[in-house]
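Example (one chain per record):
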Amino acid sequence: MKKTLDDWLLWQESLHLSEIDLGLERIGKVAKKLDLLSPSFPIITVAGTNGKGSTVAFLDSILRAEGYKTGAYTSPHLIKYNERIVLNGKQVDDESIIQAFKAIDDARCAITDDNGDTISLTYFEFSTLAAMFIYQQQNVDVAVLEVGLGGRLDAANLWNTSLAIITSIGVDHIDWLGDDRGIIAIEKSGIMRNETPAICGDNNPPKTIESEADRIGAELQQINTDFSFNPPYSSADNTSSNQWQWNSEEISLTFELPFMPGEFQLNNAATAIAGLFAIKSILPVSQDAINSGLKSAQVIGRLQVLQTKPEWLIDVAHNPHAAKQLAKYIKQNPVTGKTYALFSMLRDKDITEVINIMGNVIDEWHIVATKGSRGLTLSELEQYFDQRSEQNMKQNILTKVISYASFKDACETLKNITKGEDRVVAFGSFLVISEILDNCK
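Predicted structure:
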């Protein structure tokens, strides 16, 4: 008997044979049964390797500042499942999600496949349908959907979009998408639609983005070609400006810096702005709303400082592209003490490259295994550091690596050994950030 939200989620985890099962046929049949295939509101779909969550946050915040009633769907969650389904800036309550799950399950049970078996859905498919069910019930003005994995076959791509945004294209989810950026870009481009605006915020996009847009007939705009931004500058007296500039062929606009730090967030903000201007005939927004939205948008676990002296910095950086941005931020914002890493990763990531990138800014590594089928065991994780140690010994570089049975143990140790001038950087996975928020308070 499923009474609570936790009951439903536990049941969903065991319903389908695999955690990830790309394809739109099963979810499409259930969505049709629920009369969700033609929603009454426009949809913005956001795909990419990094920057999706932040771009969704910018879009949602700007649209709400303009007065629109919004739905924003993201994944995964860090603390509460409700983070995934946001209505007008607030997480949807348990009871609303449970009612959506009940309707989805009833629809699912009324459909059988060719073998006469009831259709099953993945955990992610349930959440995607629940979000759309709630947004339809609540009669939102617009829904912003983050694509979970890939694009073309992802559950969030079931619906036609009014605006397709691709934030960045990197090598991630190797087991599912491969390790070729050109092929990955084709998958991401699957969210594009004919005669519909498509925005790409990747600074070095594979050529397949443009060729896929041409094939589909999408109205593609790319950063540094159709729009760009100028970051704030430092004046002669070493004071930094708190303004940045967004540019297109027609106009240049000046905005205050977003609340979320890092130059890569300006890239995400510029991409979101380009997207909103591309659909201004459907959802017009003012410059004031953009400025207000940029300043209020925030996402848990993106260059977030939990405390100072010593500093605890958390970031979900879980692939080489994100690791480069994190390393850049650490270099540009140094501490006088030591920098400790609290780290773990999933097995379908490019772990070696991430360790190599971050190795230049980390003084000491503290590692823990992550849970679940995609998580590395502690011994597997240690092997990656053994390989790096062999390379470092040849260069007379010594880096300390300490293993722990749990995040709680790692947190307690780091709290005891760090001094006021030190920094702890927790990164490598959404699961790492979730554990830190649970165990390192």
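Caption: The chain has 15 helices and 17 strands.
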